Amino acid sequence: MTSAREAEPGGSLSEAQAAGLDREDLLDIYRLMLVTRGIEERGQLLYKQGKIPGSFYTGRGNEGSAVGVARAMGPDDVGTPLHRHVGVHVVRGVEPWRIFAQFMGRQDGPTRGRDGNVHFGDLALGTIALSSHLPSTMPVAVGCALAFRIQQQPRVAVAWYGDGSAQRGDVHESMNLAAVRQLPVVFVCDNNHYAYSTPNRLEYAVEHLADRAAAYGFEGVVVDGTDVVAVHREARRAIEKARAGGGPTLLESVTMRLEGHAVHDDASYVPHELLAEYAKNDPVDRFRRWLAAEAGVGEDEQQALAAAVRHALDEALHRAEASPLPDPATLLDGVYALPDALDAPHHR
Amino acid sequence: MTSAREAEPGGSLSEAQAAGLDREDLLDIYRLMLVTRGIEERGQLLYKQGKIPGSFYTGRGNEGSAVGVARAMGPDDVGTPLHRHVGVHVVRGVEPWRIFAQFMGRQDGPTRGRDGNVHFGDLALGTIALSSHLPSTMPVAVGCALAFRIQQQPRVAVAWYGDGSAQRGDVHESMNLAAVRQLPVVFVCDNNHYAYSTPNRLEYAVEHLADRAAAYGFEGVVVDGTDVVAVHREARRAIEKARAGGGPTLLESVTMRLEGHAVHDDASYVPHELLAEYAKNDPVDRFRRWLAAEAGVGEDEQQALAAAVRHALDEALHRAEASPLPDPATLLDGVYALPDALDAPHHR
Amino acid sequence: MAERTYIEAITECLRQELRRDQRVFLLGEDIGGFGGAFKATKGLQEEFGPWRVIDMPLSETAILGSATGAALMGLRPVAEMQFADFVSCAYDHLVTVAAKQHFRVGDAIPIVVRLPSGGGFSGGPFHSQNPESTFAHIPGLKVVCPSTPVDAKGLLAAAIADPNPVLFFEHKHLYRSIREEVPEERYTIPLGQARIRRAGDDVTVVTWGAMTWTAAEAAVTLEAEGTSVEIIDLRTLQPWDREAVLTSVRKTSRLLVLHEDTRTAGFGAEIAATVAELAFEQLDAPIRRLAAPDTPVPFSPPLEKAFIPQADDVVRALQDLAAY
Amino acid sequence: MAERTYIEAITECLRQELRRDQRVFLLGEDIGGFGGAFKATKGLQEEFGPWRVIDMPLSETAILGSATGAALMGLRPVAEMQFADFVSCAYDHLVTVAAKQHFRVGDAIPIVVRLPSGGGFSGGPFHSQNPESTFAHIPGLKVVCPSTPVDAKGLLAAAIADPNPVLFFEHKHLYRSIREEVPEERYTIPLGQARIRRAGDDVTVVTWGAMTWTAAEAAVTLEAEGTSVEIIDLRTLQPWDREAVLTSVRKTSRLLVLHEDTRTAGFGAEIAATVAELAFEQLDAPIRRLAAPDTPVPFSPPLEKAFIPQADDVVRALQDLAAY
Ligand SMILES: Cc1ncc(C[n+]2csc(CCOP(=O)(O)OP(=O)(O)O)c2C)c(N)n1
Ligand SMILES: Cc1ncc(C[n+]2csc(CCOP(=O)(O)OP(=O)(O)O)c2C)c(N)n1
Ligand SMILES: [Mg+2]
Ligand SMILES: [Mg+2]
């Protein structure tokens, strides 16, 4: 028995337009998904070439969900994306070369080599860097929403998490506080069926994680996360509801982790049938087919777009590779913020 | 909209008998409630006399809930009672004089003066001492249930908490684990309307805390905690269901904290009407009236019982006052367990 | 100037900060109408309303995590833990998120966590702890432990102005027992500066919080015996004022480190280790540490008295040191 | 005897304990079919079934809290944190419940928490930490940090037999890089006994975990220069073997304390402070500490190399000490 609303598919072009996406927006979303996938595919190559230290994670299969939600945010909204959310950073405007520099631990990555992978954020772009401890930035997102409420600003915070991290206590405290204070926050659970090797059935025992919204007093919605149009529509609804003072929503976006947990993991524990089923619904392919069928985006236009993305990413990669490794003499800098840190625009 | 089942009142004598309580049991429950209240009333006097160091908390208003649940447990069941649950310890067989000794920080209290108040437990009696950090013993109770499941023992764990502590992350992790593994545990939430000075509406935003059971995949039940017969019936159902392999239940028992949070708190923040309403349903009085009306327990019998309890507690108090304060030379003992600690029956 | 107790000085500071800066707000359990378990925020919700003095659910991680979020959005949250002990429930947030964010990504997190700490009232194992050493070990956190009303007010104002997460330990024993003249206008005392609580020549005691008063009591006895004791009140542990300690030890050549937190790997070890390295040649006696023994804080008065260092214990330690 | 890597020795110990004692069981994230992030439990669920090698949800508090409950019911849980870093999420349980229960009420809590720790692989700030000092400060917890396959196996067996909560830090860098002959049968090595890793006369190095190997490398260089280095591998921090350290320092009169955890208020401070107090007269040079600087663990290789003490750093520190 589920208490969550099961969202309709994205539907036709006119339905998408009704949900605020004109043809240009749709092409932009497609481009953003290609950029996201392109960044991670190049990341995997870089890893194999030994250019990425440590480990490497991708969000393959999650592009539609990440981009769909992020594209629904307003310019002043903020969010706490996690390790499957390169797409969120792409939408918010992080230049791809800086992401490559980050992967490679270079000086020009957003963390200047202090952290790796997608462990970064940029307050000016409305993103807060994740900590590995999942989902420890969820209460932080709720705090952003609290600040918006205190200051009566029409802004919304988006807090991402996964089917695994859904089981951590931080989620409970965050959602409850958001509900009690009716804060403008949207909780987005990317349920990709696994937490590392752990399948859903060993993680939780309800039909949908979105059913948990009812336990706090707000709405839960389940959406097909491979359907970017539907994801976008539901995210937009939830975000605008929050902005209008309607309080939080829990949006569960059901996807599949199309690769292993990280580069070292071949995901042999995932049943073939499950993977095969979702491979058919690879969000990028699916959206390409949708664009062709519903929005008349032909082969040529698609190819041109893909080529432009490829070209831009090749350049970005070059630029990143030219970035130096950080100087070890700088190690001690910045453990503590200095008083002028509070001169940043958002602290004034 | 609630997803929890709202339990019927305790009903008539024959209904109570159908739920497993014969007249003797009912009188025993009444006695246990009198003992519980008597211990705490004497505790308050002791505090005023300066004989109790630190602070002092009572569970006035919670006697029916505490005794009702504890009386439904089997002899090999275990539980993690909290600070409003002197009644649980009374039912499990802690001798009152040792509770007084505990309050006064004496050598013969169950913690030998190392901790105060209701901060004690006795594994041999199936209770695990609370830590103040609420409700940090809830995952411990779930671990007891896990041990029962691993060893295929027909035992059940009871985890108590409150409307305030319901908002801590530990609750979420505990309930979810219990659900995923279908563990034999019953979660009992004594909702007494307040967490210290904080009213329900600033704590959570659902109708019943028992509604949260649905978020994990098990049953939630709300019962009137001032009605010991109903509490007992619902606790017994939940416990026997767990014992039979039916997994966890969340039982929310709605009561009122009839006094301040602790001795120093006059609870002036509680609306008079609310207190007055619940004063009418003081669980001890209510049960006395019920016994008279439904079970033919007349004034004489009641008075005799009350006198016996008074007498026993007076003696207990004397005995406790004769217990010495602990010897400071023993302070360093027992920080670490020695190997023979594992010779205790439950470790073999 | 007006006479203020330690806790009144804190309340006054909070009121002044709330008045002068719209970005400052308070959050915690029971801090609103009730004014907090110790009444440090009494009257503030009345003056500033429920969105600047916010009653929170029993959710320490949500309290500190949301403080961090609000700080990132430009506000200046001052959170209260009902007792310092309960900060363990939000340990992960402080250590994992708040402490490391600026080093990793350059985002300043100006939050203050107020922590009523310390024993002496039979609070037992969970209402008496002094967890300052634990946090002083974590790079990125600041740790403040004032001992007087004047310091409490000025250090709290500095903590609120600081762009980093600051753990502000208020010793419960001092709340109402210590009273002095406190400037009425706002002022700040820089974090990281020790104060010479008492000047002396023969032995140095380095300490903080309530133990400064215990040390002062002992010093009177020693003085009567002809031993002159210098007491350094560290005031903040992170950053801590090495120079003040080294200067004093170079003068007296004898050091006692005193604290109420438990001994092993307590912050006293850091002080002793630092002095052992940097003032080795100037020492005329082994560095002594006096601290609570390695046990939880016991409840019953005779046990608790044996646990918390007493003036007599300090006297004996100083006599030993002076005689070495 | 058979050659075993450090991690193989751990797996072998777990298998032997599971075989010999029905009460032992394992719990953690991804430890079942997957065998754990580092494969320490590979094959064990197959042999012992899903109720003795239990895959847990991503819930560190539930993992350690339920371990405690099961221990109170007579079982011997061995929990795995996927990385030592994540133990911060269950800090409250360990410090509040597990550490204090025996002192308070006399209930023994025989649990073991396995913690893959340490850096050197660009794991970054959240997959590289060495939080042993934090827990060594908490009375009631034991802390073990083995450096060799033989020690890992014997100390883990002792930890499982111990009636207290034991934090067992496994250094990830050693998992597959260190290999030696390990007795096949079960054996235990008592907690609290240091091992003289290398005997020497001129300088003492006290260290543990992966740093013992760094120290050993440095000692070779020093030896070539004519300085004889004694290396004490503490093996356990709580309890720690003061006598072994004091005996060595009384012989060499020079002490370097070395660790990979950050410096300020790290456990090295405790060792230095203890020696400064108890071997004051025997010291011919200031006690030096070499540790990671007070920053989070950085990701990028040049930064991480500057963070983790390297053999060269140890050489320099030892040369300084020897020349003092
Ligand atoms: C508190 C915590 N425990 C363990 C881990 C190790 N870990 C990293 S990702 C992961 C699985 C997360 O699952 P989910 O939330 O579903 O996100 P996904 O990786 O599937 O996108 C685990 C266990 C962690 N990062 N944080
Ligand atoms: C983690 C934690 N935070 C704060 C406190 C301080 N405190 C003690 S009791 C209490 C209220 C608890 O409310 P509830 O769970 O409803 O139990 P009640 O006291 O009402 O029976 C609070 C806030 C605590 N004990 N533990
Ligand atoms: Mg997942
Ligand atoms: Mg309550």
The pair of chains with the biggest contact is:
A-C, 51 and 44 residues
Helix content of chain C: 25-40%
Oligomeric state, counting identical vs distinct chains: heterotetramer
- CATH 4th-level superfamily of the largest domain in chain C: Thiamin diphosphate (ThDP)-binding fold, Pyr/PP domains
- Unreliable residue stretches of chain C: none
> Strand order across the biggest sheet of chain C?
3-2-4-5-7-6-12
Structural class of chain A: alpha/beta
Shape of chain A: globular
List the domain count of chain A as a whole number.
1
Record field, number of beta strands of chain C: 14
Key terms for this structure?
heterotetramer, A: alpha/beta, Rossmann fold, two-stranded antiparallel ribbon, 11 helices, globular, C: alpha/beta, 7-stranded mixed sheet, 5-stranded mixed sheet, 14 strands, binds thiamine diphosphate, binds magnesium ion
Word description of this protein:
- The complex is a heterotetramer, with two copies of chain A (348 residues) and two copies of chain C (324 residues).
- Chain A is α/β, with parallel strands linked by helices and 348 residues long.
- Chain A has a single domain, classed as 3-Layer(aba) Sandwich (Rossmann fold).
- Chain A has helices at residues 13-18, 23-48, 63-71, 86-92, 96-103, 138-151, 169-180, 228-243, 272-280, 283-295, 299-321; strands at residues 5-6, 78-80, 157-162, 185-191, 194-195, 198-199, 219-224, 249-254.
- In chain A, the strands form two sheets. In chain A, strands 1-7-8-4-3-2 form a six-stranded parallel sheet, with helices on both faces. In chain A, strands 5-6 form a two-stranded antiparallel ribbon.
- In chain A, helix 2 (23-48) packs across helix 4, helix 2 (23-48) runs antiparallel to helix 10 and helix 3 packs parallel to helix 4 (86-92).
- The longest helix of chain A has 26 residues, at 23-48.
- Chain A is globular.
- The model of chain C has no long low-confidence stretch (mean pLDDT 98).
- The relative contact order of chain C is 0.12.
- A seven-stranded mixed sheet of chain C has the order 3-2-4-5-7-6-12, sandwiched between helices. Chain C has a five-stranded mixed sheet with strand order 9-11-10-13-14, sandwiched between helices.
- In chain C, helix 2 links the parallel strand 2 and strand 3 (53-55).
- Chain C is globular.
- Chain C has 324 residues and is of the alpha/beta class.
- Chain C folds into two domains: 2-182, Rossmann fold (3-Layer(aba) Sandwich); 195-322, Rossmann fold (3-Layer(aba) Sandwich).
- Chain C contains twelve helices and 14 strands.
- Chain C starts with a strand and ends with a helix.
- Helix content of chain C is 37%, strand content 20%.
- Chain C has helices spanning 6-20, 44-48, 60-72, 91-98, 101-105, 132-136, 149-161, 211-224, 242-252, 267-278, 301-307, 311-323; strands at residues 2-5, 24-28, 53-55, 76-80, 112-117, 142-144, 166-171, 179-182, 195-198, 203-207, 229-233, 236-238, 255-262, 288-292.
- Chains in contact: A-B, A-C, A-D, B-C, B-D, C-D.
